Amino acid sequence: MKLALLIVLLSVGIQSVFSQDGANYVRKGNKEFKKGNFYEAELEYRKAMQQEENSSKAQFNLGDALFRQEKYDEALKNFGALSERTDASPELKASSLYNLGNSFFKQQHYRESVEAYKQALRLEPGAKDIKYNLSAALRKLQQQENQQNQNKDQNQQQNKDQQNQDQKNGGGEGNDQKNQDQNQQDNKDQNNDKGQQQQQNQEQGKEQQNKDQSQQKQQQGNEEQQKKNDKGAAMSQEDAAQLLKALENQESALQAKVQKAKAKAGAKKKTDKDW
Predict the structure, then answer these.
(1) Mind giving me the DSSP string for the chain?
(2) What interhelical angle do 110-123 and 128-169 show, nearest 10?
(3) Which residues make Cβ contacts (< 8 Å) with residue 28, sequence separation at least 6?
(4) What whole-number distance in Å separates Cα of residue 128 and Cα of residue 121?
(5) Torsion angle of C-alpha atoms 22, 25, 27, 31, degrees rounded to 10
(6) What's this model's pTM, rounded to 2 decimal places?
(7) Cβ contact 53:85 at 8 Å
(8) Is 113 within 8 Å of 101 (Cβ atoms)?
C-alpha cells in the first residue's frame, strides 16, 4: 500500500513561510525517512512543527512517519486534520485523504477507509493508486459484512435453540420444580430397583441352596446304590464259588460211581472165564 511522502509538493510561496530552522528539520526528517529510520524522522518533523505549528509539509510527513511505525491512531489525527484544512491545496487534501484511508484500512475500519478513498478520488479521478486501494477496501468491506451477517444468523439460531430448550424444560421455577420432582422419582425408582435386586438375590440364594441340597441327596443316593452294587457283586462271587464247589463234588461223585461200576463189571467177567 503506497504512501505519499510530501517532500517537494508545496509551492515555493508556501515554503517561504517556513523558518530556516523548520525547513532544516523537515529536510533532516526526510533523510531519516528514506533510510527507514522512521522514529528519528518523526522527531525531526515534530521539531519542525515546533518552529512552525501550521506547517502542512511537516504535519503530512509526520503522519507518514507515524504510519510506518504502525501508530495508526496518531496518523489518523494528522491526515484527518490536513484533509479538513481550508488552506490546503486539492493535491495535498487528496494525498491526506488517501493516507487517511490507508490508516483506516490497517485498523480494519473498511467502511471509513472506503469513504476516505472516495473523497480522494473525487479530487484526483485519474489516480490509479487510489482506485486500487478503493477496490481492495470494498472487497474487504463485503467480506466483513458477510462475516457479521453470518455471525448474526448463528447467534439468532443459538438464541432460538436456547428458547426452545427452555420452553421444553418448562423454564424458571417450574423447571426447577420439575427437575426436583424428577430427581425424587429417580431416587424412588432407584430404591425400588435396589429392593427388587435384593429380593432377586434372596430368591437366587434359595434356589441355589435347594439345588445344592438336591445334588447332595442325589450324591448320597448314588453312594448307597454303589454300595448295594458292590455288595451284590460280592454275593455273586460267593455264590459262584459255592456253585463251582458243588459241581466239583458232583463230578467226584460221578467219577466214583463210574469206577465202582467198572469194578463190578470186571469182576463178573473174570469169574465167568474161570468157570
Answers:
(1) ------SS-S-HHHHTTS-HHHHHHHHHHHHHHHHT-HHHHHHHHHHHHHH-TT-HHHHHHHHHHHHHTT-HHHHHHHHHHHHT-TTS-HHHHHHHHHHHHHHHHHTT-HHHHHHHHHHHHHH-TT-HHHHHHHHHHHHHHHHHHHHHHHHHHHHHHHHHHHHHHHHHH--HHHHHHHHHHHHHHHHHHHHHHHHHHHHHHHHHHHHHHHHHHHHHHHHHHHHHHHHHHHHHHHHHHHHHHHHHHHHHHHHHHHHHHHHHHHHHHHHHHHHHHH-
(2) 160
(3) 44
(4) 9
(5) -170
(6) 0.53
(7) no
(8) yes
| Chain-centroid distance, C-alpha 14 | 65
Mean pLDDT (10-residue bins), the chain, 275 residues? 46 44 92 96 95 90 96 95 92 95 96 96 94 96 93 85 78 56 68 66 68 67 56 50 66 71 57 40
Grid cell, residue 167, equals 420452553
